[in-house]
Design a protein that fits this description.
By secondary structure, the protein is α+β, with helices and mostly antiparallel strands. Helix content is 24%, strand content 25%. It is built from 17 helices and 32 strands. A hairpin with a 5-residue loop joins β29 and β30. α12 runs parallel beside α13 and α15 packs across α16. The chain is globular, with a radius of gyration of 27 Å. The protein starts with a strand and ends in a 12-residue tail after the last helix.
Length: 738
């Protein structure tokens, strides 16, 4: 039996507020946590298959062109080598998120530097590595015709621009206006676990153990790449060591391993090196942004323009949606929003955590800070004055928006009232001290999802879905929803994930996993509750379940197991409906940051950071807080350290490992405070919950930039804000505080 719903009407029953088990929202530990910290959780590369051979990918040594000849003979004579593979079915590019079909194939064509073009398979990893390094390939090099840097004159509109009113006139007549150009560097996901796949064939059917985020789409992509029916492909990904968008779609290692295993008749493992992941999987595009804002004498926006230039490989439809939050966040009846894409020869650009808002929001929040200074208005107050009643230009209402509450709660907790209104006002030894603020905003999406729940004859709960846990807490959250709905202790609840033979969940990505697949679990549990109520002889909304007991008001409790004649299994399914278009369901928050800037070196240290966030019902306070903390860490990296460096002569990535691509580490981290603003948004999902996985990054770097200005008086409009950008503009280090 399946309970299915297209979500067209808000669920205002507050079901999870009326249940009695008391586990929903609690900061419960992740059930798989002990396995992970003990090293016994099995990740993709660790699945041991008898007779498994080892494969190593080989990258192209030209920027673009075609393979003329692969000199296989010498390599095949090396110890242990089983085969050299390079075919029209191997992938030139990783699949974009939710593609559901094969990306560009046929590696005889080279699209970007270090694109995987061959796979060498041997008995051991060491033998395969040696042979891969020895493999010689001749090319027809077409790099002379390539473009390696995005330019405005080569760009085309990525989408239809949003235009309203008379922007130029509004800017001319504004009491206060700013016109800024800002840049953000490219980013990479840098997940802890590298991409890996183990492929094994049995009777024409493929089983692949992989590190992937969205198995429903991934099965379709892998099957399409191999020319198979989808029911001939099974993917297993019970544990995934981070993804951040890089594992949304299948990539080179999965298809290469499958092809080699099919030809060799034995399992093949392919694990990308850290360098290969950086060089050939998704990057976030660098951006060049122009933001123009104008307001009246009271600080109310009358003009709002946000334009961006991004890049990608030729033929890729994805473009970083830089202005995504600008569509709905602030007022301004005279508007222009536009993104243009330049085709260049660098590795594929795609989804990296919070595509769009991660880089668009930090630039916008710097512009808002500069406008606040020009207007002589407190930056918090300026933001509060410019929250529209409906989405500008659309009239779409907001389902919920706790931005004012986030700004107020964050300001109070942080001590914003102690901020100096002028730069260079506070000095501690050789350090200038300053504070900054920024809003947070991220779109919310409900995705199609399915889950199966079983209440066993002995009163245990089993949740099954192919949904993945990439470190976000899916095992915990889905178990909490089922335990709460069915009134069973969390210890008697088991969650099975990461097997494509299970019902198809939403997958982990886009901040939609918990609310979407969680809603499917919710519906399955509702169907079970209805059956239990019938057995008890009451209406479903009268049934009370807690600690394995069932009763109604005024009745004697009975063991739930007495109502069962055997295992009771139901499937829940949800699909997005009209509500996605009728209301804007975005999530909101605010960041407050205090920095110290060294007066002599320009080094910036984050001293403390507060984030306040509203995203509907909190399903697990510990995992939600962790997601917000992680987002803030990403924001600090974007602000101060993270930047992909490409050689502009040939497009190759220079800093292709964690030694040179600088992610923030523990020593960089300040004291964090996270404030979760509980709310209920029945428009977003039956759970009344929204996504939180990416909200914590959206705007965080802007708060850092604004704090740097408040500390030392230097406006840096290029991210990351490294010491060399600050140093030439710092005030006299021997001057006293203003």
């Amino acid at each position: 039996m399946t309970m299915s719903d297209t979500y067209d009407t808000p669920d205002t029953r507050d079901m999870l507020d009326r249940t009695r088990q008391g586990v929903i929202g609690k900061p419960l530990d992740r059930p798989e946590g002990p396995l992970k910290v003990a090293g016994t959780a099995t990740y993709a590369a660790e699945f041991a298959r008898e007779g498994c051979a080892e494969g190593v990918l080989v990258g192209a040594t030209i920027s673009t062109g075609r393979i003329r000849k692969i000199h296989r003979e010498a390599v095949m004579a090396m110890p242990g080598v089983l085969g050299v593979f390079s075919s029209e079915r191997m992938l030139r590019r990783a699949a974009q998120g939710t593609a559901g079909e094969a990306p560009e194939q046929d590696v005889s064509k080279v699209d970007f530097p270090m694109q995987p073009v061959a796979l060498v398979v041997a008995e051991t990893f060491e033998q395969a590595t040696a042979a891969a390094k020895a493999l010689r390939i001749d090319y027809d090099d077409a790099s002379g015709d390539a473009r390696f840097v995005a330019t405005e004159d080569s760009a085309q509109p990525a989408d239809d621009p949003v235009e309203a009113g008379d922007l130029d006139r509004a800017l001319r007549e504004a009491a206060h206006a700013v016109d800024l150009r800002l840049t953000t560097a490219g980013h990479v996901s840098a997940a802890m676990e590298p991409h890996a796949a183990v492929a094994e064939w049995q009777g024409g059917e493929l089983t692949l153990w992989g590190s992937l985020q969205m198995l429903g789409y991934n099965v379709a992509e892998l099957a399409d790449s191999l020319g198979l029916a989808e029911d001939k492909v099974r993917i297993l990904a019970p544990y995934v060591g981070g993804g951040f968008g890089s594992k949304l779609g299948i990539s080179h290692e999965a298809v290469a391993a499958a092809l080699a295993a099919q030809e060799l008749g034995r399992p093949v493992r392919v694990v990308m090196t850290r360098q290969q992941v950086f060089q050939s999987i998704m990057r976030r595009s660098e951006t060049e942004q122009r933001i123009r804002l104008g307001c009246d004498a009271e600080g109310r926006l009358t003009a709002f323009a946000h334009e961006a230039l991004v890049s990608n490989l030729p033929g890729e439809s994805f473009s970083e949606p830089v202005t995504q939050a600008s569509e709905f966040l602030y007022a301004g009846e005279n508007r222009l929003l536009a993104v243009r894409k330049s085709d260049i020869t660098r590795l594929t650009a795609g989804s990296v955590r919070a595509p769009g808002e991660a880089v668009g929001m930090q630039a916008l929040e710097v512009a808002m800070d500069e406008l606040a200074e020009a207007a002589g208005i407190d930056p918090v107050e300026l933001r509060k004055r410019n929250l529209p009643d409906a989405v500008p230009g659309e009239g779409t209402p907001y389902s919920s928006r706790r931005l004012i509450e986030a700004l107020d709660a964050g300001a109070a907790a942080f001590g914003w009232d102690k901020r100096a209104t002028k730069p260079c006002a506070r000095r501690e030894g050789e350090w200038w001290i300053g504070m900054g603020v920024a809003s947070a905003a991220r779109v919310n999406i409900l995705a199609k999802a399915e889950a199966r729940v079983t209440l066993t004859a002995d009163g245990r709960v089993v949740v099954e879905t192919d949904h993945t846990d990439i470190g976000t807490g899916s095992y915990a959250i889905l178990g909490q929803i089922a335990a709460e709905m069915l009134g069973q202790p969390i210890e008697r609840t088991t969650v099975q994930l990461g097997d494509s033979r299970l019902p198809t969940g939403a997958g982990s990505g886009g901040s939609w996993g918990a609310s979407s697949t969680g809603s499917a679990v919710f519906y399955a549990c509702e169907a079970i509750r209805a059956t239990l109520a019938q057995a008890f002889g009451c209406a479903a909304d009268e049934l009370i379940l807690k600690d394995g007991q069932a009763w109604t008001e005024g009745s004697e409790p009975r063991a739930v197991t007495e109502l069962l004649s055997g295992d009771l299994t139901r499937t829940g399914r949800i699909e997005p409906g009209a509500l996605m278009e009728k209301v804007n369901q975005s999530t909101y928050g605010a960041f407050f940051c205090e920095v110290a800037v060294n007066a002599f070196t320009g080094e910036t240290r984050i001293r403390r950071m507060t984030g306040a966030f509203g995203f509907g019902r909190v399903l697990n306070a510990k995992t939600a807080r962790s997601q917000c903390l992680g987002g803030m860490v990403w924001g600090i990296g974007s602000a101060l350290t993270e930047a992909l460096a490409f050689d502009t002569r040939d497009g190759h990535l220079v800093n292709h490992d964690l030694g040179e691509y600088h992610v923030p580490v523990h020593a960089d981290m300040p004291d964090f405070e996270v404030i979760l603003l509980e709310e209920r948004d029945p428009h977003a999902s039956p759970l009344q919950a929204k996504g939180v996985g990416e909200l914590g990054i959206c705007g965080a770097a802007g708060a850092v930039a604004n704090a740097i200005y408040n500390a030392c008086g230097v406006r840096v409009r290029d991210f990351p804000m490294t010491p060399d950008l600050l140093l030439p503009h710092l005030p006299d280090p021997f001057a006293p505080a203003a």
